Amino acid sequence: MPADQNNWNEKTWLHRFAILAVSLVITTGTAISPALPAMQKAFSNYPATLVNMVATIQQIPAFIVLLMSAPLARKFGLKQMIGLGILLMGISGILPAFVPNLWFILGTRIIFGIGIGLINSLAITIVNIFYSGNDKAQMMGNRTSFETIGLCIVNILVGQLLNLSWQVSFLAYFFILIILVLFWRVVPTIKWDNPVDKNGKQQAEKVNFPVIMAGVFCAIMTMGLATVSVMTPAIVVDGKLGSATDASFVITVFTLVSMAMGFLFGQFFKLFHRFVLPIGLLFFTVGLLIMNFSQSLVMLLIGEIIVGGAFPLAGTYIFDIIDKLAPKNSNALANSVLLVGCNVGTAISPIVMGFLNPISPFSGAQPGIGLFGALIGIMMVIIFIVQLFKRAPKK
Predict the structure, then answer these.
(1) What is the structure's pLDDT at 33?
(2) Choosing a second label site near 211 at 20 to 30 A (CA), which of 45, 57, 245, 341?
(3) Tens digit of each residue's pLDDT (9 = 90 or more) over 121-137
(4) Alpha helices of the chain — where are they, by DSSP H?
(5) What domains can be seen in the chain, in order of their start residue?
């Protein structure tokens, strides 16, 4: 718990915002993507694939450091590690504006990824420490939406600064340093010791079967979300439903719906409790099947709007109850497992769709989407039946 609570009240809007603000920076790595075409021209003597790695290479160190963030936070302090992670992201994000060397830029992006890895699971842990019950459920939903908001903010800043030059566009990451100041000034030092047994000996965090299955579930969910983002342009253009601009509009609406549903998660949870999980999967199933059979841009848009409500319900529910599924004093490691699942699901989604497309019984430009939706539907039915006969995790 906080070590200095003189002016701290986690229930006030400012202190809630300071905790949620950490999540504003987590997904900003890809926000530099609009600058890639200009960078490809500037670095025309390098392969385009290498230049494109500027927007993605940070995920590699993020994945590695993610597994070490909790032990480091227990040893050096939760606030200190979050602060260090945000600082690394801010400084390394801005540096390419001053050194137009591709190898230097890729190096700074690796440091950027280390920062992401330090704060990714800790952004969830800090919510678990300060909040409980329905309040925690709402904060988890808000946290999911804040990731999208942060990405949108930096995307807009990059787009505006790109009018000056691709180098200047990296100054958009100054936004991260503003978040650092807010977090550091508002959030108190948090005492988060290593768990000990009844004899006072330190206990190692453990992972059990439910946590592993929750990680697999997150991988499946993010696999579907990544598929929507990646395959939408092909469905629109190859299916002659519209132009690439139309596809971009559909993806934008999909993103905004996901953000809105994150804010509404707390209300859905109060109404449906554990059944928000199969409801989220129902959204996923129906939305993907509509996408598969879309014959018009409007029909595709409706399908993606429905899919947009899936992860904010089902995925956020898993993050909300993971502390009840995990072994005692192993919440941080359990959160890391979920995030690893999310990263793996995103990474392998093109491979999975490539496998499902030729064996799918459905028609359409991307028939694998329909088969994936049907498989999600089967999983939904199984989970719903299990929930009917099994008690929910105690909150």
Answers:
(1) 78
(2) 57
(3) 899 889 988 888 888 88
(4) 13-20, 36-42, 48-52, 59-66, 69-76, 78-94, 102-119, 122-130, 133-161, 166-169, 174-186, 209-238, 244-272, 276-292, 297-308, 310-325, 331-359, 367-389
(5) 13-186 (1.20.1250.20), 209-389 (1.20.1250.20)
